[in-house]
Sequence to fold (876 residues):
Amino acid sequence: MQNQKLAKKLMKKSKTARYERFGHLLSLSALLLIMAIVLGIIVFVASKGLATFFKDGISVKDFFTGTLWNPGTKTPGGHQAVGALPMIVGSFLVTILAALLATPFAIGTAVYMTEISPKRGAKILQPVTELLVGIPSVVYGFIGLSVVVPFVRNTFGGSGFGILSGTFVLFVMILPTIVSMTVDSLRGGSRFYRQASLALGATKWQTIWKVVLRAATPGILTAVVFGMARAFGEALAVQMVIGNAALMPQNLTSPASTLTSVLTAGMGNTVMGSLQNDALWSLALVLLVMSLLFNLLVHMIGRKGAFKK
Amino acid sequence: MNRTQKQSRFAIACLKAVAGFVVVILAFLIGYIFITGLPNISWHFLTSPAKAFNAGGGIGIQLFNSFYLLVLAMLISLPIALGAAIYLNVYAKDNWFTSMIKTSIEILSSLPSVVVGLFGFLLFVVQFNYGFSIISGALTLTIFNLPLLTRNIEDSLSNVPDDQRQGGLGLGLSKYETIIHIVVPASLPGIISGIILCSGRVFGEAAALIYTAGQSAPALNFADWNPFNIDSPLSPLRPAETLAVHIWKINSEGIMPDLTQVSSGSAAVLVLAILIFNLSARFIGRKVFERMTSVK
Amino acid sequence: MQNTTELNNKPKRFIYDFNPEETDITMQTKDLEIYYGKTLAMHNADLKFQKNTITALIGPSGSGKSTFLRALNRMNDGVATVKGEILYQGVNINQPKIDVYEVRRRIGMVFQRPNPFAKSIYDNVTFALQRRGIHDKKTLDRVVETTLKQAAVWDQVKDSLNKSALSLSGGQAQRVCIARALAVRPDVLLLDEPASALDPVSTQQLEATLRELKKDYTIIIVTHNMQQAARLSDYTVFFNMGEAIEYNKTRKVFTRPKVQMTDDYVSGNFG
Ligand SMILES: Nc1ncnc2c1ncn2[C@@H]1O[C@H](COP(=O)(O)OP(=O)(O)OP(=O)(O)O)[C@@H](O)[C@H]1O
Ligand SMILES: [Mg+2]
Fold:
C-alpha cells in the first residue's frame, strides 16, 4: 500500500537526524570537558592541600592560628612552624581595606556616569573604565612599585612595602571593575521610578539616594563582592608591593604577606611532596575555598535581590 | 532655596568631586603608563632579546612568546568554548544539570588565576611531564580563558532573534545545523568582539604562566621554523617567558640595571596592545556586521 | 446577544465532514490535545485538510491558531506536549519513530515576521538543499529561479541574487522566505500570519502568489484579517479558547455561519 511505503520513508532515520545526534554529543562533550576541569581543579588542589593535615600530621588549629610560617622548622613551642595566620590576616586586610576604600568612590563615579552627566559618562568615562578593567595586573604591580611604594615610604616612613601599599594598588585595580558593574546595575533600573520621583517633587539627590541606589543595591553589592574576590585572589600585583615577609602585620606600613604572595614566591623553591610544598598547597586550598565562598555570596545576593522584586 | 534643595546641591557637588577624583586617578594611571613608557619603546627594544645583567636589552622574544601563547590558547579554547556555548544555548533544558553546569563555569571564571596556574603546573608540567613550556602555558591559559569565552559566545548566540532558529527548523534542518550555519554566522560580529576582548585578558595574564610557561626566554633562532627543533620559535616544548611575566620577573629580581626603563616600556606595550584589542573589538565587530547586512 | 443562541437553537460547534470518495485529504488531526506544561491549549480540533486548497485559520488572539498550526509539522516539539494523531497522507506523524526532519521538509512553514537568514538571497533559497548534500550548481540555479518565480519575486531580485537577504524590503523578504520553503519541495505549506508585517500592496501580491501556489500545494494559513480569509481561502476554521468552533467552506462561514459565536466573530460583535 502507498501508505506503508510513505510510513517507511518517514520512519527512516535521515542524515539530518544523525547530524543532530552528532552535534548534540559534540557540544555536550565540550561542556563536560569544562566541568571535568573544574572538578579536577577542586579535587587536585584539595587533595594536595589536605595532605598537610593528613599526611604530614599538621593540626588544623596550628595552621589557622599559628603565627610562625617556616614549614620544615619548629616553633619555639615545639610545634611545626606552619602557621598561616599572618597570610590569612594579610589577605583579608588588603581585601577589606581596598573594598572599603573603593566602594564609595566607585558608587560616586557610577552615579555621576549614569545620573548626573550621562553624556560625558558614556563618551569618556565608560571606555576608560573598560580599558582599565582590562589592564594586566602586573602593570598595576609595576606602577605600585614605582609610584605607590615610594609615596608611602616618603609619607609614612618605613620601607614603603606593606599592607598599605597593597591596599592602594588593589584599590586602583578593583575600582574600574566595581564602577563598570555598578553602572550596569544602575542602568538596569527602570527610568519610570526616577521620573515619577522627580515629578513628585523630590530633589535630584533624594531621587538618587532613595530610588536609584535603593533599587540597585543588590547589583552594587554583587559588584563589591566581585571586586573583593578579585582582590583576594590577585597574586602578582600584591606580591610586588607587600614586602613578602610572612609575619603578622604590626602596622599598615610594615612588610607583610598574603596567601597569594607566599604562594607565588614559594612554589618554585620547594620540592613536590615535601612538607614545605604541601603547606603551600594548603594556602592554595584556602584561596580556592574563599573563591567558592565569594561565589556563594554572589548567588545569595542575587537570590535575595530577586526575592525583593 | 529651601533646605532639601540645598542639601541636594551639596550632595551632587560631592558626587562630582568624587567622580572628579576618580577621573584624576584614572587619567594619572594611563598618563603615567604612556608618559614613562613610550619614550623607552623603539624598534630595537621591540625586537632584540632581553639582557639580564646589562642595560639596553629588549623584549623581542617575550613579545613573540606572548603572541604565540595567545594564538595557541585561542586555537585550543575556541572550539571547546563554542561547543559549550552551543550546548548551553541550544540543548540545555531548565533543570538541575544546567544550573550545575552554569555554576561550575562561574566558579572557573572567578577562580584566582594563580590557582589555575598551580593546577596547570601540577597537571601539565609535573604529571604530563611537559615541563615549563609553551604547551603547558597554552593549556593553562586555555583553562583560564574557557569560562569567559564561553560566556561571551553564549551571549552573542542568545542575541540572535529566535525567528532565525525557527526558520532553520522549519526547513527541516536539525538544531545543530541551524545553530552552526545560521545562528553562529548571524552572531559573528558579537563572537569576534568576544574573542578579541578575551585575547586582551589572555595577553596580559602572568600569574597563570609563571609556573607553567616558565620564567626564562632562551634565545630563539628565527631562521628555523621547524617546531620540532628546540630553539625554533614554534617549538612547543621550550620555556617561554611572556611580556607580562617579564615585567614581574625583572622587578622581583631587581638585578637588571635599566629595569625601570624596561618595565615601563613593557607596561606601555602591554597596555597599548590591550587598547588595540579593545578598539579593534568594536571596529571589527561593526565592520563584520555591516558587511553581512549590506549590499555586496 | 447571549439569548439569540438559545432562540435560534444553533449548535455549539460545527465541523464540516468531507465526503470520503470525492476528496483527497492531505492532512488530518484526530483526538488532538495540546498542552503547554499542564495547561490545555488545544482540544476538540479534529480537522481535515484537502489537497490543493487553501484553508484559513481565524480566531481571536490566544485562541490557539499558532499552537494548532505548529503542531502540524511538529514545530512544537520540546515546547508543547501534543497528544492524539496527526495524519499526513494517512500516516500518523505524531509518533516518536517518525523522523521529524523529513516531516518538516514535506510540511513547510512560513512565519509571521519575515526571517531571512544573514546570507545572500541565493544562499537563503538553496541553503537547505546544500545541507542535504545537493551542490550541483545547475540544479541549484534552477531551483532558485523556479521557486523565486513561484513566489513572485524573481523579477525584483534576479539581478542581485548575491546581495544579502537582510537588505530586502519586508514584502520581498517574505516572498524569499516562501521561495526558501518551496525549495525543499514540500507538499504542504503552513503560513502563520504571513502578511501581518506587510503593507497592503505587498499583501495583495502575496495573496496572488498563494492562489497560484494552491495548484501544487496544500496551504493552511493563519490570518487575523477577515477579508483576507474571505478572499483567499476555500475553507475556514474558526478557533476560540483552544477549540475549533466552526469549520466549513469559507463562503458559508462568512455568509451563513452555523454557530452563533462564529457569527458574532465574523460580523465583528465578538467579546
Ligand atoms: N510557548 C508557550 N508556552 C506557554 N503557553 C503558550 C506558549 N505559546 C502559546 N501559549 C498559550 O497558548 C494559547 C494559544 O496561543 P497561540 O499563540 O496559539 O494563539 P494564537 O491564536 O496564535 O494567537 P495570536 O493571534 O495572538 O497569534 C495562549 O493562551 C498562549 O498564552
Ligand atoms: Mg499566533
In short: Chain C has one domain: 22-266. The interface with chain B takes residues 73, 75, 101-106, 108-111, 113, 115-120, 127-128, 131, 160, 162-164, 166-167, 177, 180-181, 184 of chain C (CB under 8 Å). Chain C has eleven helices and twelve strands. The two ends of chain C are 10 Å apart (CA to CA).
